[in-house]
Structure formats: C-alpha cells, structure tokens
Amino acid sequence: MLPSLMESKDSEQATFGYSFFFLTISFFLTFVLLYLLRSKFWYCNCEICANYLLSGWSREFKNICDWYTHLLRNSPGQTIHIHVLGNTITANPDNVEYILKTKFENYPKGRHFSAILGDFLGKGIFNVDGDLWLFQRKMASLELASMSIRNYAFEIVSTEVKCRLLPLLTSAAKSIDGGLIDLQDVFRRFSFDNICKFSFGLDPGCLESSLPISVFAESFDLASKLSAERAMATLPLVWKIKRFFNMGTEKNLKEAIEVVSLLADEVIMQKRKLGFSTNQDLLSRFMAGITDDRYLRDVVISFILAGRDTMASALTTFFWLLANHPKVVSRVREESNQVMASNQEFASYEQIREMHYLHAVVNESLRLYPPVQFDSKFAMEDDVLPDGTFVRKGTRVTYHPYAMGRMEGIWGIDCMEFRPERWLENGTFCPISPFKYPVFQAGIRVCLGKEMSLVEMKIVALAVVRKFDVKIAAPEAAPRFNSGLTAMLSGGLQAEIRERVIVE
Predict the structure, then answer these.
(1) For binding heme, which residues are annotated in this chain's numbering (predicted)?
(2) Which of 43, 157, 387, 473 is the most buried (most CB within 10 A)?
C-alpha cells in the first residue's frame, strides 16, 4: 500500500512540475505576443509616420544620409528630432563640442549600444563607458603614442603595399579582362591583413595574389554585419528573442563570434606560452597590463573592428574621388616628385609629412565621405543643447559628420565640391576645429589611431598614383552606400587599372 501511495505522490509532483513548466512557457509566449501586438500597433503608427517622412528620400537621394543632410541643412539650428526613432540629430558644431567635450559625462555610448555589440566586442574600448573605458584609453594612448609602434605600423603597411598590393594591381593591369578589379574588396583584404598583423602579430594573408578565403575574415565580416543589423532593428526585442532561442541570424552571429574567439584565444595562449616581451604587436604590449585573457580578447577585437572597415571605406571613396578629378592626381604626383628622389619607389615617414597637398587631399576626401557617417550617444539626464534643443533623459543623440561636411555655414557655398585647396594657406596645411570636422570624433574620445590612419592612407595613395592610372567603371554614378556601422559601397568599386607610361 505504501509504495503505491509514494508512486501516486511522485506522479502528482511530476504532473505539477510539467504543468508549471508549460504554464510558465505559455505565460511567457502570451506576454511576448501581447508585447508584439502592442508594439505592432506602435510600429504600424511609426511606419505610417516614417513612410510619410521617408516617402520622398529614395526618389530624391541615393543615400539616407543625403536625406538627413537635406533636413539638417533646412533646419534653423542644423538640428532635427525624428520622433518615431527617438533620435535627436545635429550638424551644429557648438552642439557637437557640447556633447563630446563640455558635457561629455552626460553623453556616454549607453547600455543600449553596449547591448547591441556586447556579444561581439564584450568589454572592449569601443563598447564601454566609465572606468573600463578610461583604463583602456590610458593604456592605448601610451602605446599608440610611442614612436616605436608608429614605426612598426609604418613598416607593416609599407610591406603589405610592396609585397602584395602593388603586385596584385600589376597583375590586374596585365590581365586579359582589361584590368577590372573591385577596389573595395582589395582594400578590405589589405586593411584586414594590416590590422591583424598590427593587433595580433597574425598574418591572415587575405591579399595574396590568389585572393584566398580566410575563415577568420569571413567570420569577422559576418559577426560585424549581423551586429550592425541589430542596431538597425526597429524592435530590439525581436533580435533578443531570436538570441534567447538561438535561431536565425542570432544563431549565425553566435557561430561567427565563436570562430573569431577561438582563433583569438589560440593566439593569446601561444603568446603567453612562448613569451611576448620582445614582440611589438598591440596584443603583446597589452599583455603586460591585462591578465584576463577574455578581456584581452575583447580589447584587441575592438581594434580590429575599428581599423579594418573604416580604412577600407576611406580608401575606396578616396580613389573614387581621385578617378573623377585627374588634376588632383597630377598635383599629387608633382608634389611627390619634388619631395622624393627620381629613383625612389617608396616615400619615407618624414617625406610623407612634408607633402601638404597630399594631406589636404586625404582630409578633403574624408570630409565628403567619412567612413563613420554618424555617431550616437545617449543622454543620462535631461539637458539643453547650445542651440536650445531640449534633450530628454534616455534620448539618443546623434552628430552627423557626413552632413557636417556638406554645410555651407562650415565650409562655404562650394561645400559640395572636392577642393583640397580649402585646407591650404600659402601651400601649408591648416587644420580646422575637430568639432566642425568630427571624422575622427573629437574631445575626450578622439580617435587614438588618427595619425596612423592618415599615414596609412597616404602610403597607399602615393604607391598607387605614382605607378598606376585608375579609371572607375561608372564614373558618373554617385556612391551608393550600404547601411551598416561603416560606409561601404553597395556593389563595391569596379575599376580599371593601367600601369603608367612615364615619358622622361
């Protein structure tokens, strides 16, 4: 009798357990459904408003950033608020200085942004605020400011140009298909090789002549792309639910991150095993100050993300502009001939610093086509911007370098023209306030890799324009950008490469 009673009790408990489990699941799904129905109503209303606002932009403008530029240009304070997106957007330099410097503490990246990139970047410098950010900032500042690491970066880029980029372009110029090549793909491979060697001491060899497929590069690309799609989602709950159930794009993102993490962990383990004190790469330098390998991985992955697509984007639009302005190319060549010896193939670091016109060309290119077209912060407390715009606590606040490069109030009536001379005074380069030109951010968060990035662009520019003529397959077509964290051209940049014939 007793065993049967015990079995009965066990059965009742099991039944209760299953019922409780299914009740919990049902409650959760009901809550999600109600939330989605409520959100759907809100979303539909937002869509109606958004469609009303956006109905004309795709017909009038090639890119949504051009539409934002139009709105900002026609706003009295160069500030607008998109209510359906909860986003205050500004192209006012006074507001930019206020956000990035004066009231820096009130405008962090915020938990919303950190959640979006958290799985990929973890606690890396570009995804954190407060003490974690400050610690990494100080460490990176000390390392990147040293002349030894700048020389190391210069050597890496120069070697990649000499041994891979130029041979690849020479091969394309001699090919039977007319020398057509996708420069955006070339520059993505080029920058990935460079940043991996600089950050990890690892050479993925993406720019080898065979243009091999790298599992690490592919996984990194996918993780970056899918993380960016999270940022574009109208309803953040959707990707969070997909992540919870490990389905769809969130499953793909998780798998891509695992590949990147495994390789990063393997590199870190090998460096600790073999010793890192004599290595010059960023990882080896950071190992002395960071003992947590997971944290170390996050730091270095963040630098790869920042240094890869931004450089590829900058170089792609740079050569698009040069191909459409042959007189600028001629002046770059003339200046290089004045500074470099006639039999000299590559410029030294010191010679590059002497080329003021080339520096102006690079800055003018970045003015019109910044790799990061806009950047957002989140207000910690209610605030009022210098132009009188009220900002509610928790509001997303965005400054827009792409639009700012097209403002007559900053650059004059010829702001839409590619005119490097605007940066020169009596042949000498004259910088402008970074709050009018926040391509590398400004204030406390100004990009630590700014100088190295500019040098890298100039190394590539000189090497290519002195040896090749570059013609764009469709020069009349204005750039059309994909949506994402960085401004990449839709469809790439098809170009015809021809070796120059120099008449002595």
Answers:
(1) 447
(2) 157
